[in-house]
Amino acid sequence: MPDATMYSGSVKLENTWRPVEIANVKIPLNSGMQRIELNIPDGVQIAGIAFTNGDEVKPSQISWKSSGGIAGNETAIVQKVKSSVRFEGYPSDKTMIRPRIRLKNVSSETINGFKVRYYFRGESPELVNADAYFPREDSLGLVVSGEGYNTGYVEWAFDTTRILPGGRPYFGDGPLMGIYNDG
Asked: By CB neighbour count within 10 A (0-12 exposed, 13-18 middle, 19+ buried), where does 156 fall?
């Protein structure tokens, strides 16, 4: 009988997608087939799992294809919101990008509160700032987060905004933010 080793631990769960890195766990894999089991709570969806033999690959550098689930996951991912991004601004101002994120509730349920994220690459997250333009001009709720050395995202929370079935928030215009580098 092969040697079975059990590792245990926990990862803090959030209601939004984020990459999680579990470091310094040594799993000696022999050539051939390996069986690895994960105990995952109901309602948690995983886009993909990767193993690496060092720190040369970070979770934020791995791209996963969008799908209805991964092998062994019986819970299909149901799309409730359709989103699109349009870049607005002034062509002469190359120091700021202004994404407008349009949303449409394509489900039959009312959505109570949501967050939008705009991912960026090639800038140090410590130097990135964000301003709110629409629906409100205060930047309260805008958060810049880093995922790696030159990758991150800007997240804007709308905790009290409802989107009715088939509806679009903010008269169909969607949130508009400005993202720029301090340097």
From this structure: buried
As a dihedral over the C-alpha atoms of residue 60, residue 66, residue 68, residue 70, rounded to 10 degrees, the angle is -40
**Measuring CA to CA, which residue among 47, 45, 114, 103 is closest to residue 74?**
45
Is it the case that residue 3 has pLDDT exceeding 60?
A: no
Are 134 and 101 contacting, i.e. CB atoms less than 8 angstroms apart?
Answer: no
Q: Taking the model in full, what pTM does it have? A: 0.57
> What residue spans define the domains of the chain?
81-181
77-94 pLDDT tens trace: 457 899 999 988 777 777
HSE (side-chain half, CA atoms, 13 Å) at 24: 1
- The answer to whether the CB of 106 falls within 8 A of the CB of 80 is yes
CA distance 104 to 85: 12
Q: How far apart are CA 80 and CA 105, in angstroms?
A: 6
Cα–Cα distance between 24 and 69 in angstroms, integer? Answer: 28
CATH number of 81-181: 2.60.40.710
